[in-house]
Amino acid sequence: MTVTEAPRDVLDNDADVAADTEPAPPTGLAALVGSGDPRTVGKLFVGTSLLFLLVSGVSGLLMSFELIDLDKTDNILANDVYPQVATLHSITGLFLVVLPLLLGLATAVVPLQVGASTVAFPRASAAAYWTYLVSGGLIMAAFAINGGPFGGDDSGVALFIAAMIVLLAALCTATISVVTTVLTMRAPGMTLRRTPLFSWSMVVGGTIWLLTLPILAGNLVLAYLDFTYGEQFLGGDVGLYGRIDWAFWQPTLYAFAIPALGIIADIVPVFAQRRLKQHGIAMGMIGAFAALSFGAYAQTGVALVPDAELRPWFDGSPWLFTPWVASGFAIVLPLLALLGLFGGTVSAGRMKLGSPVIFAQCAALVLLAGVAAGVLTVIKDLDLAGSMWMTAQSYTVLIGTIIAALGGLAFWAPKLYGRLLPEALGRLTATVLLVGTFVLVVPYAIAGFLDEPRPLAHETATDLSDKSTVEVLNLIAAIGGVIVLLGIVLAGLALLRTAFSKVSAADGPGDDPWAGHTLEWTTSSPPPVGNFAGLLEVTSEAPLYDARHAAASATTEASA
Amino acid sequence: MATTAAPPSTASGDLEVLSGLPAAPPSRPRVLLVGTALAATAVAMGILGMVALYLELRSQWLTSESQWLPEDTVLPLTPGNVAFLSLLMSAVTVAWAVYALRNDDRSHAYFALWWTMIFGVAAIVDTAYLWQQMNMGIGDSPQAVLIYGITGAHTAMIGAGLLFMLVMGFRALGGQLTGRAAEGVNAAALFWYVTIAVYAVIWYAIYITK
Question: Which among B1, B4, B138 is the nearest to A225, CB-wise?
Answer without folding.
Answer: B138
